[in-house]
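Review form for a predicted model. The reviewer records the input and the model, then writes brief findings.
Reviewer: anonymous (R2)
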Amino acid sequence: MGDVDIDFSFHTVFGAECNLFFDWQSLGVVYSHRRVGVPGPITRILTCTEEQLADYNNVDIVPTHVAPSWNHNPHNNDDYPAYNKPAGLLHWLQNANPTEVRSKQRGSKPGSLSFYYYYY
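Model under review:
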C-alpha cells in the first residue's frame, strides 16, 4: 500500500490497569496503532491505586497517563472495575491537555473534540 494523504488526526486512548496482563495487551495495541499508521498520538490511560502504582515498574513502556483507580466507587460503595474506563477518560481530559481531534471527513469543525465508540 502506498502513502495516503490524510487530512485528519486522532488522539487514540485506551484503558489499562497496573498488571502484567494489561502490559502485554498495551504493547500490542501501541504496536498495531503504529504499524497500520493511524494518524495522531496514542495514550494508555492507566488506572491504579496508589499502592499498586508504588509497586508497578512498567509505567513508561508506552505513552501513558496515570489516573486514580475506580475499581471501588466511594460515592455509592460499589465495586465495579468498569468504572475505570469513563473515570480514567474524564481524568485524562481534565488533566492531560490532550491533542485535539480534527476531521473534515467526519464533518467536525476545526479544533473540535470528537469521540468514537469502540468495542468494550
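Findings: The longest helix spans residues 20-36.
Further findings: The longest strand covers residues 42-48.
Recommendation: see findings above.
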